[in-house]
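Annotators were shown the component list below and the corresponding predicted structure, then asked to write short factual statements about the assembly.
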Amino acid sequence: MVLRRVVRARLAPLGIAICFFVVAAALFAPVIAPYDPAATDIMNSLQRPNLAHWLGTDDLGRDIFSRVIFGSRISLLVGGIAVGAALLIGTTIGVVAGYFAGIIDNIAMRIMDSILSFPALVLAIAVAAVLGAGLAAPMIAIAVVYIPAFARVARGQVLSTKEQEFVLAAQTVGSDHRRIMFRHVFPNITAPLIVQASLSVAFAILAEASLSFLGLGVKPPEASWGRMVSEGRQYLQDAPWLVFGPGVAIFLTVMGLNFVGDALRDALDPRLRM
Amino acid sequence: MKARAYPGSRIDAGRMSRRALVGGGLALGGAAALSPLAGVLGGPSRLAAARQDAAAPGGSLRVGLYLDAATMDPHFSGSKVDRQIYFNVYDPLVTLAEDLSIQPGLAESWEAPDPTTYVFHLREGVTFHDGTAFDAAAVKVNFDRMMDPELKSLRRGDVAGIESVEVVDPLTVTLHLAEPNSALLATLTDRAGMMISPAAIEQFGEELARNPVGTGPFKFVEWQKDDSLHLERNTDYWMDGLPHLDEIRYRVILDDSVRIAALKNHEIDMVDYVPPKFVADTRADANLQTIDIPSLAVWFIWLNTTAPPFDNKALREAFASAIDIAPIVERIYLGIGKPANGPISPASWAYAKDVPVRPRDLDFARAKLAEGGMPDGFACAFKTEPTPSNLQVSQIVQAMVAEVGITMDIIQVDTATQIADTVAKNFEATWSQWSGRPDPDGNTYQHFHVNGGMNYGGYDNPEVNELLDQGRVVSDRDERTKIYGRVTEILQEECPAVFVWHPDEPKAMATNVQGFPPVPDGMMRFATVSLD
Amino acid sequence: MIGFLVQRLIGTIPVLLLVSLTVFSLMHLIPGDPVQVMAGEVQDPETLARLRADLGLDRPLYVQYAAWLGNAVRGDLGKSIRTREPVTDVVLQRLRPTLQLSAIAMLLAGVVAFPAGILSATRRNSRIDAIATAFALLGVSMPNFLVGLLLIFAFSMKLGWLPTSGYVDIFADPIAGLRSLALPAITLGMALTAVIMRMTRSSLLESLSQDYVRTARAKGLVERRVVIRHGLRNALLPIVTVVGLQVGNLLAGAVITEYIFAIPGIGRLIVDSVFARDYPVMQGVVLLSVIGFIASNLVADLLYASLDPRIRLS
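Structure shown to annotators:
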């Protein structure tokens, strides 16, 4: 039922196809990529796209196509894990706050406010300084930033769900809180959270690019799309293909995730907003 | 005598101007290159000559900086970019010429009656921007301010060897040293030799950081942090007819590509530094002239000799022999500068010409791995700040050493962490960029002498210690060149560091900017500069 | 109303404390030392130790925090370690460019996004809708440093219409100010425009399908009146929420925009002060960003109430 409506939406098939390709690229990267993404060959650096290197070579002579393929792993990993963690933590906080209300709600929401007003970049820099810049820094920083968004969505949903009859019924029967939350409340709030998550992954991929720009990206020689764009920006004028490959990859993925997110939203709850 | 530019040919403006400027500079340097201890009697021949065919005074020069200055107080400055501004606001006691000879500055002449005594004869009639007179007492106030441990001047290390400063008469001042120091004069060409108005020190105190008062060719007007800094012509400058320019407006543009774009777009007239990536671009622009100024700098990899794996000399050698320096300089730094054979740059008179760059030799590297007990290679961590060019180099080195089985992990750290870790020897290998000093001592002693203040690799070799001590006592250049040549040989053999690159520091400017002196310390001195 | 404001203001105090304490401990726990950064290339341990003592950096952390808090309550945010300027001056000075930049970016976003969103909602699935959607996707899928560099190459280098970088105060010289802020504002406003446009489109579509809109149409009202009076008014609520939350993102985006276009704003100040471990400045900026966030949320709430009479501020 839900699935059929998702598919029916005009752009959804395109979005799903794109997401499918990106995930496939990430899973089968070693098979698809013609070269080792880390193999440098500085005597052949900055080659235009050609038959041997479909997207050209970068400043260290690495094959850009192979790096874009392998980059999907890093970008999805950063986006996926960061958003996954935020989803888990944020939802838990939101559900607990919404369900118990009162002082717990108040404290939890003040903490969420603090996080929202906390300069995320400071956090990213701090994490990078402690752990050394690498995957962890962008992931933790992005995760923390998205926690309040999930918490808010979850809390709002819980507040409206818990007044519904089946929850009230469960309470009168004497089910314990945990059981009520997991059995009855959770299933009813997943839809908006999934929508929120699909859109957040898109933003997380971009956020990782910005962190790369500030030198807080993943550890070399690993390549995320964001790092590739950020490092290639120096060559924007004389070797634009350094930015083109990963740039298009980001664009398509973000677009795909947006289409899927929109379609999910329409399918799951037409009244739901971002 | 002043380097005039090539009217006419617009095709190869960059290269023409470079030849013209460097040629002029060398000729002048040659004429003035007397013994560094003797001083120059005839006054500043180069500047005097420049004055004769000076262009009509006037104009505003707009200069792009890659970073904002931190403070206007030379005694508390730790940032390289600060000096770009100081050289126009302050005059040092002695100045550095294009050929690294020491020329008169605020001191007209000087002599060293014995190796621990320097007598400076000061220029008469010089006044600070606030109207107070420059004299021997002012010099003493400045040195005392740098030497007083209570005042915590960052120059204390520079003047550490000075025991006392004696005012002989209003125009004569004597420095008494604890021990001989051949590098002293070179040190006094920079921040340690710059004279601040004692009245301003009295008046502003800590606030001097934003209210510089010197004797230089330009006066401080205004500073908008992280945006712009404005200097205007000092009409009472002690050199007649100088400066030519009415004002200098510095602007901070952090992003390399945007800074070069602003230059090409005529929004600024000059940039302090053109990164290698953009040199071809500025050279190709007919409206710009690009001067390759060789620098005294050395970029190298510190190896920590006090901890595994690099406390093992064989493993250091294996690591160094696995790295191919030439292609790094050729492809990453695009040939802007020279592959390094040691700590001293080819711009220095003490450069070890006869010592080749350490060659790549994978068989040797494997043999050394076996000798060091790690025949299959080993793992090490390399710390660097994640600037684009640092990441390029570290990834290339990573790929090179991987060929003999050395797994190099790249750890990206920010500046503060990098400094803290380096000082605490909390690293295995780390990237270092030393901006260089005019005297070879400044590129060697502090890093490789056991008592050196910045011997972060913890290197201790009795022969090197001995040689570096000698280098401070001996004053003859030929003899010192031999000493530092030997030091270079030993360092390359023992690998407390892998020396990679002596960068050129190209400056690019609009073709109408005339008379810029290309001194290898990379500083922009605008006294003689004019606009056509 | 006043009660609501007072309550909200009291509610901000724990947030302020929590954030400042977190930033303080975080920054002191990570490696790096402001005095070492200040000294730069040449490190003389003895002098640096004295400087550290001078700045009180050798005291236990809780003492340092208590001292900072005590002074902050009295309005004294201390002095920058790096430049020795009073933090209040530094922060206020840097606030100006960022405020001007953000204001223009938001204005630009509003001017473009609302009409485009309305058009694409009322002419759903038309060519205009497709173009607007494509633009919105481009806006949310390009890293903003890339947008900035592309704009510089197009409008400054190729066309020569606008300066590449720099900042001129708009009140000092309106024309030069607008010229210098045009490209940065587009860069900063791009993502915001896209988000507002999409929100406008979807929430307008939704409110237009509501019963009261159908009733209005049935009454025979002109379509434009229906859209504006009934549709848009009700669609504004979620838009205000999103814009309110985006203000925080603007500050983050400002970091990179200010870096690219060489604008001396607060975004750069915060990154620079973190990298330099300039604790007092960092604390000052964080304090300000928290206040800014709370204020923008407050404004959003007030707008909410004035848009929807059913919402009571309590």
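Statements collected:
1. The domain at 2-21+78-272 of chain A is CATH 1.10.3720.10 (MetI-like fold).
2. Residues 191 and 268 of chain A are 6 Å apart (CA to CA).
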